[in-house]
């Protein structure tokens, strides 16, 4: 029997027959030697009757697997490594595990009977090995990667299976608890809130909890010899914001992050309250080709710790993903413009608010840039080869600018705020956005934006004519 694919853009990832509601990850990691030992306890809800569950896990060996009926936090706590045996669980109606096999970066759990839709199962997987990025033909490498002295996890879009067994599809959002024991002297940053940090001999234990639902690709771990760098002020809302990094030039740090709190203020004003409990930035000691967003956290290479626009716009861009991409997440990868177009437009919003070129000037500049490029990209379905093409970002931002020009500033930012308020924690499509924008403004937004979304030729530069 073939293995399932949840999304055409990521062949061989994800299983739509079940959802994971919570991941409880207990990891041991030795920086020297890049050795990971893990135990994942998954709260699984069956969505369609099935006699197998297919998890994604790449480059790591599976030890013990257990499937138990029902779910409770107590069960997760009791399910220690010792208890993780590859034996069927005690039966109380739901099937247990018959056997498991591994192939093609998947763990196939065959059940000893059919699980009905709605069945809740606790799946425990012990695993270990030397994690490394997963490489695909279209999308390059992603996932757990060693730095010169530490680790970065950059999982978008297909790297999550490199460090935990998961149902790797963007619309399967879950809460997380991550307890990571690491060589002493390293700091562990992850999603959500640090709830515990203790020393245990030559190791330190870092426990992070992400209480809001999160897509697998947004789960991250950052390990390095980092410390917290003080910021000049908090945002007006009081949101806790922190930057952790190794040694940096103080002037460059101030140039890059001196206005981070104002950026949060501007985005909260335009997009509504920041959707999570905190925002943290990790600056790696290594240079990075591109920065990346994770839920509640962004990662930049030290090469981006600068004050020029090309660095500043990326600091704005990654922050904006907390609203657009992390709180409100696409259901299918083909709708990537809902993340990247919005984050790119947010760069222009910051430009305008911070005394730089207005959004209209940015739009004109980037429209001219697109005029010089090929017009073979369909924004609403660019295909896996082009999903992170720069034209998705710029054309996506121009699409929003078209809407703003049509409905005016007040209605435009109001619909962005209600978009986040209504859909935070959930999964969305382009059609959801068009319907929402139409409902909020009374304009037929699907017709207005069709040339931008569903045709490849470049529409004229939008201007606020009225
Ligand atoms: Zn982005």
Explained architecture:
The chain is globular. It is α+β, with helices and mostly antiparallel strands and 466 residues long. The protein has 10 helices and 22 strands. The protein has helices at residues 73-78, 250-257, 260-271, 309-320, 337-353, 359-371, 390-407, 409-423, 430-441, 445-454, and strands spanning 18-30, 35-46, 50-56, 61-69, 97-103, 106-115, 120-129, 134-136, 140-147, 150-154, 174-183, 187-190, 193-200, 203-214, 221-224, 227-229, 241-245, 279-284, 292-294, 297-301, 329-330, 427-428. It has 3 domains: 18-223, tricorn interacting facor f3 domain (Immunoglobulin-like, Sandwich), CATH 2.60.40.1730; 227-320, Neutral Protease Domain 2 (Neutral Protease, domain 2, Orthogonal Bundle), CATH 1.10.390.10; 329-454, Neutral Protease, domain 2. A 7-stranded mixed sheet has the order 4-7-2-1-11-14-13, with no helix packed on it. It has a 5-stranded antiparallel sheet with strand order 8-9-10-15-12, with no helix packed on it. A 5-stranded mixed sheet has the order 16-17-18-20-19, covered by helices on one side. Zinc ion is lined by residues 317, 321, 340, 343.
